């Protein structure tokens, strides 16, 4: 269950948070302890990781697209307007630029999944390869509008620059059965974390040469109470369930719980409310970086 040991001259990643919008969510969709009228403002965090040796910029998630109301499918907009309120004071593109990076310089973008508050606006990143889970393919093929009832547009991702990552390419890492050693040097692993939406991925990255780690959890867990045991995944007739496969999502959460027991592992949720309240506008955001444990 241990994570890989550090090698001599071990490469690692410097990780920075990116502002990428907010969504107000009925908390009773997320945890089974919430009241029916409880609303939580979720930050939508994205992350830029820089490889310590190559300085390769790698982005995990893109948050909410600024033009979300014009860019999403009609069925998706209907659902969003039913449940959520959205605000995008600064999107991931602006966060990248304010942090000193040109979107054209980004080589790789891994999306945890293709929900609207994670896929952002891929269009400015014209030199990036997009990495998504293999099971994302069926969500956009044929996609909207060929399938008028689906949420996801057929051209959401650039077809010639999208890598659909399968578990056949992966090996176990720590408590997770499937992960890809992306750079081949133990610095960054793309982890298969099923349950929320088909194709859901997380990132596990070293943050120091001597054993610090960060786990970027996407929507594998929306709220810390799911990881501390203070609440369970909500599933009700009125609010529904936030996960496509609740049982598998619970298995993934158990893996994250096991990961948290290992030394020097920081877990970050994409909608990490307490972390955001403590760190908004601070040094963990690009051009600064998140401190390694």
Structure characterization notes:
With 293 residues, this protein is α/β, with parallel strands linked by helices. The chain has one domain (13-279): Ribonuclease Z/Hydroxyacylglutathione hydrolase-like (Metallo-beta-lactamase, Chain A, 4-Layer Sandwich). It has helices at residues 68-71, 74-83, 92-98, 116-119, 137-140, 225-228, 246-260, 273-279, and strands spanning 13-18, 22-26, 39-43, 46-51, 57-60, 85-87, 108-110, 129-133, 162-165, 171-173, 176-181, 188-192, 201-206, 213-216, 265-268. A hairpin with an 8-residue loop joins strand 12 and strand 13 (201-206). The mean pLDDT is 97.
Give the % helix.
10-25%
Shape: globular
Task: Give the N-terminus to C-terminus distance in angstroms.
Answer: 19 Å
Strand count, sense and closure of the main sheet?
A: 6 strands, mixed
Topology readout:
Elements: E1 13-18, E2 22-26, E3 39-43, E4 46-51, E5 57-60, H1 68-71, H2 74-83, E6 85-87, H3 92-98, E7 108-110, H4 116-119, E8 129-133, H5 137-140, E9 162-165, E10 171-173, E11 176-181, E12 188-192, E13 201-206, E14 213-216, H6 225-228, H7 246-260, E15 265-268, H8 273-279
Parallel strand pairs: 5-7, 7-8, 8-9, 14-15
Antiparallel strand pairs: 1-4, 2-3, 2-6, 4-5, 10-11, 11-12, 12-13, 13-14
In a nutshell, what does this entry contain?
The protein is an alpha/beta fold and 293 residues long.
């Amino acid at each position: 269950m241990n994570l890989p040991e550090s090698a001599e001259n071990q490469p690692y990643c410097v990780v920075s948070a990116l502002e990428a919008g907010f969504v107000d969510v009925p908390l009773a969709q997320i945890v089974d302890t919430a009241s029916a009228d409880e609303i939580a403002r979720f930050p939508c965090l994205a992350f830029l990781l820089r490889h310590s040796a190559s300085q390769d910029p790698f982005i995990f998630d893109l948050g909410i697209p600024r033009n979300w109301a014009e860019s999403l499918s009609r069925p998706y907009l209907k659902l969003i307007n039913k449940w959520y309120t959205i605000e995008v004071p600064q999107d991931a593109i602006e966060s990248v630029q304010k942090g000193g990076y040109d979107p054209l310089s980004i080589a790789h973008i891994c999306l945890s999944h293709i929900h609207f508050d994670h896929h952002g606006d891929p269009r400015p990143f014209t030199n990036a390869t997009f990495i998504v889970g293999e099971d994302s393919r069926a969500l956009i093929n044929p996609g909207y509008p060929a399938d008028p009832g689906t949420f996801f547009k057929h051209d959401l991702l650039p077809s010639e620059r999208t890598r659909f990552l399968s578990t056949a390419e992966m090996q176990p890492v720590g408590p997770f059965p499937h992960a890809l050693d992306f750079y081949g040097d133990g610095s960054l692993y793309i982890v298969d974390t099923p349950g929320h939406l088909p194709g859901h991925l997380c990132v596990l990255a070293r943050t120091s040469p001597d054993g610090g780690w960060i786990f970027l959890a996407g929507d594998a867990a929306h709220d810390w109470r799911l990881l501390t045991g203070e609440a369970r995944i909500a599933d009700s007739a009125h609010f529904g369930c936030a996960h496509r496969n609740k049982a598998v999502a619970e298995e993934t959460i158990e893996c994250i719980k096991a990961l948290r027991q290992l030394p020097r592992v920081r877990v970050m949720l994409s909608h990490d409310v307490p972390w955001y309240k403590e760190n908004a506008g601070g040094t963990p955001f690009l051009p600064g970086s998140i401190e390694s444990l």
